[in-house]
Amino acid sequence: MNVLDALTVRYFIVQAREAVFKFEWLMQVYLIIPQIAPYKGYNLAHSLGGEYYWQRLYEFCSELVEAEFSGTDLQVNPADEVRLDDWGVYLLG
């Protein structure tokens, strides 16, 4: 699964965290250290300019997650479903 899918259409918190972790590992290790397979010989930071690369990568990664869930219960109470449906109809007009 790619990062875009994991953070949008197929979002699930565990998969999203794993996808972001793998992306950061790719960008911070595999494409930076030329001796590590499977990207042996690559040093993307050097090619793009070290300071620029690390600054842009940090900015990009910090923007991947726009919001965080701060609740404690992911379940919807069946009694609230009607109110949620009504609210959705109101919002969608």
Can you offer a commentary on this structure?
The chain is mainly alpha-helical and 93 residues long. The protein has one domain. Helix content is 61%, strand content 0%. It has helices at 3-7, 13-30, 44-48, 50-63, 78-92. The two termini are 35 Å apart.
How are the elements arranged and paired?
Layout: H1 3-7, H2 13-30, H3 44-48, H4 50-63, H5 78-92
Tag the structure with descriptive keywords.
93 residues, mainly alpha, 5 helices
Gist of the model:
The chain is built from 5 helices and no strands. The protein is an all-alpha fold and 93 residues long.
Please report which band the strand proportion falls in: under 5%, 5-15%, 15-25%, 25-35%, 35-45% or over 45%.
under 5%
Number of domains: 1
Q: Look at the structure and give the mean pLDDT.
A: 75
Please identify the oligomeric state. single chain
Count of strand segments:
0
Q: Runs with pLDDT <50, length 5+?
A: none
